[in-house]
Amino acid sequence: MIERVAQAIYAKNAAAAAGRLPWAKAQDAMKESLRDLARAALGEMREGIKDLGRNPPCPYFWPDHSITVLARLDEALNEEAK
User: Fold this and answer.
1) Is the residue at 17 inside a domain?
2) Residue 75 lies in a domain
3) What is the model's pTM?
4) What residues have CB less than 8 Å from 46, skipping those under 6 apart?
5) What is the Cα–Cα distance from 45 to 41, expressed in whole angstroms?
6) What is the rounded distance in angstroms from the CA atom of residue 71 to the CA atom of residue 14?
7) 67 lies in which domain range?
8) Are 67 and 46 in contact (CB under 8 A)?
9) Residue 29 lies in a domain
10) CA pair distance 67, 42, nearest whole angstrom
11) Structural domain tally of the chain?
12) Residues 6+ apart with CB under 8 A from 64
């Protein structure tokens, strides 16, 4: 048991010395999954907004503004991915 703990500590320290923590790869994969999920949600929202724009639910609905906001969110996702 003590040997396994020592090996884990050594692996963690070696990875940290290399500039990358051992769980960083898993974090990167999780972030990419969340980005993909967010992009899919934005795509669905974009389609829904276009449909609502054809038949607005109220006079205060501005589909162009909503599309602009979605484009900014998409840009932010792309920037964060870099």
Assistant:
1) no
2) yes
3) 0.51
4) 67, 70
5) 6
6) 42
7) 24-81
8) yes
9) yes
10) 10
11) 1
12) 53
Q: How far apart are CA 45 and CA 63, in angstroms?
A: 11
Q: Which two tokens stand for residue 42?
A: 């934005």
Give the orientation angle of helix 24-54 with respect to helix 63-81, to 10 degrees. 170
| pLDDT the model gives residue 79 | 82
Dihedral of CA atoms 26, 32, 34, 39 in degrees, nearest 10, equals: -170
**Distance between CA atoms of 12 and 56, rounded to whole angstroms?**
56
DSSP state of 19: T
Residue 67, token pair as written in the block: 């599309």
For residue 11, tell me if it sits in a domain.
no
Please list the ranges in the chain whose pLDDT falls under 50. Answer: none
Residue 59's pLDDT is: 62
CB atoms near residue 65 (< 10 Å): 10
